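Give me the fold.
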Amino acid sequence: MINKKYAQPLFMILMSFGMSIIMSGVVVAVNTGVSDGFFFRWRYSIMFAYPIILISAFTLAPLMRPLVNKIASKE
């Protein structure tokens, strides 16, 4: 088990990886279709999408957390 203080960064790393897999697959399928070479193009797209999504998650999370706390009810 890992220390609980690493739970949030680990969550963001795993969530951004899952999102990059799903979104790059959808975008590649929409733009080029599911045909020969789809999985190669998808894997290539993940290599570029994952670092961008990961950096975005770590950058935007501290900015969005106060906004969400303001919008969400106190109940």
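The two ends are 32 Å apart (CA to CA).
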